[in-house]
Amino acid sequence: MVVPPLVWILSLGIAGVVLLVDVAVVGRRPHIPTTSECLRYLALYVGLAIAFGLGVWVTAGGQYAGEFFAGWLTEYSLSVDNLFVFLLIMTTFAVPKPYQQTALLIGIILALVFRGIFIAVGAAAISSFGWLFYLFGAFLVWTAVKVGREGGGGDEDDYRPPLVLRLVQRWLPSTDGYRGVRLTVVEDGRRLVTPMLVVLVALGSTDLLFALDSIPAIFGLTQSAYLVLMANLFALMGLRQLYFLLGDLLTRLVYLHIGLAVLLGFIGVKLVLEALHSNTLPFINGGEHVAWAPEMPIWFSLAVIVVTLGLTAVVSLLKVNHDEKQLARAEAPVIEP
């Protein structure tokens, strides 16, 4: 997919304006967003993503539109898994509810910058070294097994601060409490960092770790750096609203880790098959393409993603409802005749 520079500029410019408006609105009045507010913003971002996908369909064809929608849904589902860790971070650092929206917004902007760098590096590497698909595919399959075994969610004891966060906490003097949403303050002639800065470092560095999984995964669905970037943009834009909207519902998605494991495993296998199909490594089939390696059409990948996510949500909620009914029966008082 060849994207003119003007389209890149317009796309990033519009996304930047949307984020700046978001920053202005949240920065002017830090607060706990209401359900209706979250729904309005989420509807806006989802609507923009759908409109963008339809625009790709009209201008570039159904193949690329399908790649975008598959990538966007995959990034969205992986982002929901991020929310579990974000909840742990907010709880661990006791972030006041009105400040959580600001922390999430700045953390998401940092994530967009970091992921943009990852995508640029990944696109350049793939265009020069096609054999990287073997490594990406194997890594995703390994990650799928790891995610499936370890599960998702967890409690506060599961959170392990990244190295960069531990260094910040160790070497930078900080205040004993929050100072609104300020990152640093001067007290008694000393420049101190606030817990808000520590929270942002935690959110940013944690998202970098998640990007190690999500970026290879989406490159398994499309090799267009433009579509990869836009799918990440639209997925992260609605993440803040999902955080407040889902709330306790996150803990009810008990099988989310299995669904994500299936998705990552599927994309990992798809990457390996594509690498075999376009193989140039001399020690595999003499450097020739492997004829028997099937190609998975994008409609099939999109169907697998939608069905997997749908089943994961439905089965999770059925499981939780069943367990709640069983618990209610067990705790119900026994009335003797």
Describe the protein.
With 337 residues, this protein is mainly α. It has one domain (5-325). It is 73% helix and 2% strand. It contains twelve helices and two strands. The protein has helices spanning 5-28, 35-60, 62-92, 97-128, 132-150, 163-171, 195-219, 225-237, 239-246, 249-252, 256-277, 298-331, and strands at residues 184-187, 190-193. The chain has a two-stranded antiparallel ribbon. The termini are far apart. Residues 153-157 have low confidence and may be disordered.
| Count of DSSP-assigned helices | 12
Gyration radius from CA atoms, angstroms? 22 Å
Strand order, main sheet: write it out. Answer: 1-2
| Helical residues, percent | over 70%
Separation of the first and last Cα atoms: 76 Å
Number of strands: 2
**Net shape:** globular
Low-confidence stretches: 153-157
Topology pattern, helix = H, strand = E: HHHHHHEEHHHHHH
Q: Overall pLDDT, averaged? A: 77
Q: By helix and strand content, what is the structural category?
A: mainly alpha
Number of domain modules: 1
Largest sheet entry:
2 strands, antiparallel
Measured by DSSP, the beta-strand proportion falls in under 5%
Chart the SSEs and their pairings:
Blueprint: H1 5-28, H2 35-60, H3 62-92, H4 97-128, H5 132-150, H6 163-171, E1 184-187, E2 190-193, H7 195-219, H8 225-237, H9 239-246, H10 249-252, H11 256-277, H12 298-331
Antiparallel strand pairs: 1-2
Helix pairs in contact: 1-4, 1-8, 2-3, 2-9, 3-7, 3-8, 3-11, 3-12, 4-7, 4-8, 5-11, 6-7, 11-12
